[in-house]
Specification:
The protein is mainly alpha-helical and about 260 residues long. The protein is about 85% helix and about 0% strand.
Length: about 260
């Protein structure tokens, strides 16, 4: 696979997933977000060759798409996780589930209007913008730029990790993961990054931590703004935070 093939496959995939996402398909939204992350990673590599107007415009569209999908994806994950915790504890949690469902419906209404207006030509424009930068470089130069891009991300990851900024660290880790996917599949580059052998495991652990922190914060916000006996929700929140901390500690143990 060439860099051009890799890029074209991503933009085609993004276009095809728009329809699934517009129907609020959970898996479709997830896959579209992952594709958007990979495109954002390629934008980062392309920017190392110099900026161009097309790249700036295309980047704005991709970034907005990523954020819109992220908002509804977070709510969907919270609903799924909450249902699991309610089943474990035997608590009904009807009020909070209803509250989350209401938030999801509002986001769906907004997204339904926005996504049908989304300029799908933004994907082809992004492809042209990236080609303009990536095609101008020889494969060897592209490998060098991509490798340096990963090295910079690793430094940012380590800095965020040492400062206990785990959400930032998780973001950088994902970019490293997708950049290395590009290097191996499109550039036949052997990976030798410092954290390569544990990227996937740490990423999953931090993902579980992140999802539970968001749910715990939602439960807390619901408790503080809802009248009545909230002791049951308080106990679930404590359990969720305990589990979140457990996943974080497992991730920490992998990086000494």
């Amino acid at each position: 696979m060439t860099p051009k093939d890799y890029l074209h496959k991503l933009t085609e995939r993004a276009s095809s997933l728009i329809d699934l996402a517009s129907n609020f398909d959970t898996e479709g939204i997830h896959k579209l977000r992952v594709t958007a992350k990979k495109l954002k990673m390629l934008e980062g590599i392309a920017e190392t060759f110099g900026d161009n107007k097309n790249l700036q415009i295309a980047h704005q569209a991709t970034d907005k798409l990523f954020k819109k999908m992220g908002a509804i994806r977070n709510i969907q994950i919270q609903e799924q996780l909450l249902a699991e915790y309610l089943k474990q504890t035997g608590m009904r949690g009807t009020a909070l589930l209803k509250d989350l469902k209401g938030q999801e419906e509002k986001l769906e209404q907004h997204l339904a209007t926005w996504i049908h207006q989304f300029p799908q030509k933004a994907f082809s424009r992004l492809e042209r913008a990236l080609k303009q930068n990536l095609d101008s470089a020889k494969k060897r130069t592209l490998k060098e730029h991509s490798t340096k891009f990963v090295e910079k991300l690793e430094k940012k990851f380590e800095k965020a990790w040492t400062k206990n900024e785990f959400h930032k660290a998780r973001t950088f880790l994902k970019r490293i993961y997708y950049a290395e996917d590009f290097l191996t599949k499109a550039l036949n580059k052997r990976i030798s990054s410092k954290h390569h052998h544990i990227l996937d495991d740490i990423g999953h652990l931090l993902g579980h931590w992140h999802d539970r922190i968001i749910l715990a914060d939602s439960i807390q916000n619901f408790r503080l703004h809802t009248a009545g006996n909230m002791r049951g929700y308080e106990l679930i929140e404590e359990r969720v935070r305990k589990d979140a901390n457990s996943f974080l500690e497992q991730a920490k143990a992998m990086i000494k």
